[in-house]
Design a protein that fits this description.
Strand order of the largest sheet: 1-3-2
Largest sheet: 3 strands, antiparallel
Strand content: 5-15%
Number of helices: 7
Distance between the termini: 40 Å
Order of helices and strands: HHEHHEEHHH
Length: about 110
């Protein structure tokens, strides 16, 4: 069965998978699903992520329009990050992955 417009869809699909598949990207989005967070809150939630990589990934998400960086109290140093409507569109995808992880039970396979 041939998919209509596959060349365009396949190219966009590949770009989307590559973007969301970047190291820590999914975890950052998952963390922000529960609402706006300050940098240190995101960093504390994601064990093992470096400051440099968290900053880089947040900037990528902001540049792609998936996350909004809001300044608190007109201070340059106090900011919080929040998913935009485009970022919130990942919610079903991220939750489906979480459900799949639970179904596959990766944790028990690692201990065998």
């Amino acid at each position: 069965m041939t998919q209509p417009n596959c060349k365009h869809i396949c190219s966009n699909y590949h770009q989307a998978i590559e973007f969301i598949g970047k190291r820590w990207m999914g975890m950052i989005i998952y963390t922000l699903l529960s609402g706006p967070k300050r940098y240190h809150e995101i960093h504390a939630t994601i064990s093992g992520i470096s400051d440099r990589l968290l900053t880089e990934r947040l900037n990528e998400l902001v540049n792609e329009g998936l996350v909004e960086k809001k300044y608190i109290d007109s201070s340059i140093k106090k900011v919080e990050y929040e998913l935009t409507p485009n970022g919130l569109a990942f919610k079903e995808v991220i939750l489906a992955i979480v459900k799949w992880i639970e179904f596959c039970d990766f944790e028990s396979k690692e201990t065998k």
